[in-house]
Design goal:
With about 400 residues, the chain is an alpha/beta fold. It has helices spanning about 20-25, 50-60, 160-165, 190-200, 235-240, 260-275, 285-290, 305-315, 320-345, 365-380; strands at about 1-5, 35-40, 45, 70, 90, 95-100, 105-110, 115-120, 125-130, 150-155, 175-180, 210, 225-230, 250-255, 280-285, 295-300, 350, 385-390, 395-400. The chain is about 30% helix and about 20% strand.
Length: about 400
């Protein structure tokens, strides 16, 4: 099944008309994206957008052979002129199936928001799922017959849709996931590519022709990632973003609760509100057993608070106890954690703080914490396929 993406942008395109934002300013040349529209085997057009005929011509195709035009979502703005000879556009009722003269079977998939998704099966059996902007399939069950060969969806706007598809088996390890409906709320260029790769997806330029069912190397999602940065740098948001397309996540909060500290309670509350409702939470510093057992992806936030707890238990804040076995006890516990990270089979994203670039602590205990956290970060990073430094909300790839 041949699929040509006549456009890959949001309904208003990218850059948006008259928008002064940085992403729109950078969306020039190959980064310009028209509203998303798909041409399947020259016979089926999914979404009719302004300039569709010209876009097809630029990609070396024609709309002359199109026998069916289907819409996935309400189209706002001025009316779209239907090119001469093209059938009228329509939408299929949820759950209904069409068989086209070209041999394609098209089934309308209900969404959890206004719009319709389409499952397209070719005469040779290749399967494609196309979802509207801001849409996720509704009523998914765990008995999906087989993974789709390709899914074309709003990955950046609805990452939870991809998580749900993975949870039901509709997206498997070999499914080619293409991000469309790309808008100006996500950075463009290499940052977009990096974020999509973390979700096991990719973006392609307008006019690209793909072959559904053809082998394509799926982006390799790092299994162990360390995210470091300063206070309020955005490192926790970056860590959460890396797992938002996973069907299951265990959020490991190492800070616990603090009685009588409203500011801490507010921080914890903000973190909880950001996380998807399907994520589970465990408040513990006992990380080694979690890393040793099988289970869903782990998000550990954060290693700095884990180290604080470990130093508490080792008596490492007191100079005498530090010299009398405290240092050895802390180093042993740190080594156990690093060994568990090395041996784990789980997907792990850990957050830590970068504290070695600021003011030198005034106390010996403060300097000890800074030094031990630096050692822990370096040892943990050595066991990770990817290491990120977040500065002012921008993620810099140090490894991976």
């Amino acid at each position: 099944m041949e699929l040509t993406l006549l456009g890959t942008g949001a309904p208003l395109g990218l850059p948006r008309p008259d928008c002064p934002c940085a992403v729109c300013a950078l969306s020039r040349g190959p980064r310009v994206r028209a509203a998303t529209a798909l041409l399947v085997d020259g016979a089926l057009l999914l979404d009719l957008t302004p300039g569709a005929a010209l876009a097809a011509a630029r990609s070396g195709h024609s709309l002359v052979g199109v026998r069916q035009v289907l819409l996935t979502h309400p189209h706002d703005g001025p009316a779209v002129e239907v090119p001469a000879g093209l059938p009228s556009a329509g939408r299929v009722p949820d759950g209904r199936e069409l068989t086209l003269i070209s041999g394609h079977r098209v089934r309308a998939v209900p969404m959890d928001s206004p719009g319709t998704g389409y499952e397209v099966t070719s005469a040779d059996g290749e399967t494609l799922l196309y979802l509207p902007p801001g849409g996720s399939p509704a009523g998914l069950t765990d008995d999906h017959r087989a993974p789709y060969d390709m899914v074309v969806a709003d990955v950046t706007g609805r990452p939870d849709a991809l998580a749900r598809l993975r949870a039901t088996g509709a997206v498997g390890p070999a499914t080619d996931v293409i991000a469309v409906h790309l808008d100006h709320d996500v950075p463009t260029g290499t940052e977009l590519d990096r974020r999509l790769a973390a979700a096991g997806a990719r973006a392609v330029p307008d006019g690209t022709t793909l072959y559904v069912g053809e082998y394509h190397e799926v982006p390799d999602v790092p299994r162990r990632t360390l995210v470091t940065g300063g206070a309020r740098s955005g490192k926790s948001v970056e860590a959460e973003r890396r797992l938002e397309t996973f069907p299951e996540v265990l959020y490991v909060a190492t800070g616990g609760t603090r009685e009588g500290d409203p500011e801490w309670a507010e921080r914890v509350g903000l973190h909880r509100e950001r996380r998807p409702g399907s994520w589970r939470t465990a408040e513990t510093c006992d990380l080694v057993p979690l890393l040793e057992e099988d289970g869903p992806a782990l998000l550990v936030d954060c290693l700095s608070l884990w180290l604080t707890d470990a130093m508490d238990q080792a008596g490492a804040w007191d100079d005498e106890r530090w010299a009398d076995g405290g240092q050895a006890a802390l180093r042993e516990r740190t080594a156990e954690l690093v060994a568990a990270v090395r041996a784990t089979r789980r997907t792990v994203v850990a957050v830590t703080n970068e504290v070695g670039s600021g003011v030198v602590p005034a106390t010996a205990a403060g300097r000890r914490f800074r030094d031990e956290l630096g050692r822990l970060n370096a040892a943990f990073a050595d066991e990770c396929e990817e290491v990120l430094l977040v500065v002012a909300g921008q993620a810099l790839v140090l490894r991976g």
